Amino acid sequence: MADRFKANLQGLAANKTIRSAVIWMFILLATKASLDGLYGIGVHQGYAPEQPIAFSHKLHVGEYEINCAYCHTGVYKGKQAGIPSANICMNCHNAIKRESPEIQKIYTALENDQPIEWIRVHNLPDLAYFNHAQHTNVGGLDCTNCHGEISNMEVVQQAKSLTMGWCIDCHRETNVNGKDNAYYDQLMDAHTKTAAGPMKVEDIGGLECARCHY
Ligand code: HEC
Ligand code: HEC
Ligand code: HEC
Ligand code: HEC
Ligand code: HEC
Predict the structure, then answer these.
(1) How far is the centre of ligand 1, averaged over its atoms, from the C-alpha of 200 (Å)?
(2) Domain locations in the chain?
(3) Mutational pocket test of ligand 1: of 58, 80, 132, 150, the residue with most ligand atoms within 8 Å of the beta carbon
(4) Does residue 139's CB lie within 6 angstroms of at least one atom of ligand 4?
(5) 78-93 as b/e: b if 16+ CB within 10 A
(6) pTM here?
């Protein structure tokens, strides 16, 4: 019985068609597995780490309507939005809810001269260049385009994939913001003379490798 089974197997292995079918199946499965792996590398959509202090955007922004730039002071001016130092918290918490154990953690950080160790949520690889002011100030985009509804979040979550494809898709679809921008006025005049549709980020170089990589 076992011998006959073995003979059958050898017969199968000897059959060219079946052998190449098995090899192809293997190659396809291996390719799919590695592609899935590649596309997944470095993509952290949905990442929402627990933070050292239970700071809530829903409370501070959703309820008390504190402006994003009050804490993220660089967001309209520079590359980085920035994370607020404990001193900014103290503008209010030297008076508000001092007795709360979560607020006491801010006091402890300041007394020990240690920064609060917030865990970074969004993180592009070093090879990519991203500038906030270019998008918020010049481009006129709202934070929600890229960060989702932060004002509803108890814990910040990465809402978008932050992949190269995500950046490129938006540059293909989004019109350049020409409001109050004399430099773009001229570009746009030139554009409308020669092109059918409105001027997209793509048309000012937004798909060029060197704009995002150096
Ligand atoms: C009172 C101060 C304060 C205000 C106002 C505030 N934030 Fe924050 N934000 C923080 C702190 C502190 C952190 C770090 C802890 C955390 O992730 O919750 C943070 C983290 C973030 C992060 C994640 C940063 C990372 O690590 O990648 C984003 C995005 C963000 N804020 C967007 C916003 C937006 C958008 C608004 C306005 C709608 C806003 N914040 C208003 C204090 C503030
Ligand atoms: C502009 C004023 C303001 C600033 C700045 C501010 N907060 Fe608050 N925070 C509040 C108010 C108002 C409350 C709600 C207090 C209440 O429930 O009575 C609050 C509540 C909190 C609570 C909840 C405390 C509890 O036990 O209920 C935490 C935690 C907190 N803040 C952390 C922070 C941190 C960390 C920072 C700095 C990154 C910060 N806050 C900056 C106004 C502020
Ligand atoms: C066009 C997309 C886009 C818009 C619009 C945008 N952000 Fe970001 N934001 C990003 C990306 C991408 C990162 C990660 C940057 C990195 O890792 O270098 C980031 C990171 C951050 C961080 C982490 C700290 C830092 O400086 O990198 C904060 C805080 C933040 N954004 C707040 C804001 C706020 C507040 C607004 C609106 C006023 C805003 N962002 C608008 C894409 C955007
Ligand atoms: C929600 C749409 C959106 C997303 C997502 C987005 N961008 Fe942009 N980007 C814009 C707009 C709009 C401009 C044009 C700003 C201006 O008028 O100069 C721009 C301009 C730029 C420029 C300057 C291009 C030039 O030719 O002057 C760079 C560089 C850039 N973006 C990088 C990135 C990177 C890197 C990412 C992804 C991490 C990204 N962007 C994601 C909308 C977006
Ligand atoms: C609008 C911005 C933008 C443009 C334009 C752009 N890239 Fe990227 N690229 C990114 C971002 C952001 C990442 C990191 C996220 C990721 O890996 O998807 C990246 C990642 C990469 C990587 C690393 C991929 C990986 O899996 O680690 C390579 C290689 C690359 N880009 C090459 C290019 C080339 C070549 C071009 C021009 C044809 C180009 N990029 C144009 C934003 C851009």
Answers:
(1) 29
(2) 2-40
(3) 150
(4) yes
(5) eeebeeeebeebeeeb
(6) 0.89
